[in-house]
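Next comes a concrete protein, fold included:
___
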Amino acid sequence: MRRGFVSKQYSFRRENRCALCICVLMLLSIPVLMFFQLDWAAYVVLGIGGFAFYLLFQAYQRKVTDFFDQVNEGMDQMLSMGSDVFLPEVEDHENVFSRFVSKLSRLYGAMRVAEENADEEKRVMQGMIADLSHQIKTPVANIKMDLELLSKRQMSPKRQQEFLGRTLHEADKMDFLIQSIIKMSRLESGAIQILPEQADLARTLANALLSVSAGASQKEIGITVDCPQPLIVRHDPKWTEEALFNLLDNAVKYSAQAETIEIRVEMREAGVYLLITDHGMGIPEEWQGAVFSKFFRAPSVHNLPGAGVGLYLTRQILEAQGCYVTVKSAVGEGSTFSVQFLG
């Protein structure tokens, strides 16, 4: 990013030194001449000094005018958000003009950063809309197809229930996606306040486990928990439960039938660590840094349900209260998600 270029260098030292010399000469010579009663000479010196000041003022005025003309051109370039902005440079670094140009250059830098951030936000928003459209398109098409079949064909009550159940499942998927997008948007805009407090993390974990128990039972997945009770840790119970649910839901989703998920708490110097380990398919090393990104889904899981927002929300929620979440994984062995609470 280019924040500005030097169009012309200015120095006001010469004018300042000349003015100082004239003042010193006049202050020294006039009293001496008056003392020797050379009044005419004193008036001559005063006249020469005044004329010198006039010439100096004219030169100073021209330089200042030229300086601000250059500043004006630079500001026009700034307003047009050009990539190359030329600003004058003042050699006297403690000069008021130098400070002015320095602040102007910093202002332009901030404007460029803001413009780049706006471009990035626009790009992300366009990507989000495209991803959202892609995610919603499939359930909407399935719902439409099932409803058309229900309206045009004579079916047995059992068959009708199958179609209705499938339609409700697709509607639930779409509702989950939309709700996730809303939460994500509210978190990013600051509309949701996350307020950590001293609360029982064991209870928060238990509530999150209740939400995934049905899915775990369907796959005959066992869940072991090693957590002291109570476990008073600074966190927002409501939103931390949401974050832990996302981690547990992923563990259930990507675990094979009849596997085991282990949850344990470790007390370390750096804080309280909650570790969730599954023995599922694992995450390839090249994708581990991206799993917390918005709408990210590894190519190997595109055939499984999901929208790619759960882990992104998890990181946003945890980081908003000073916590950290990381992952260690090996393909074919499983993954361990580690959440650090600062106590």
In short: Residues 96-152 form the longest helix (57 residues). Residues 1-7 have pLDDT under 50 and may be disordered. The first strand starts at residue 5 and ends at 10.
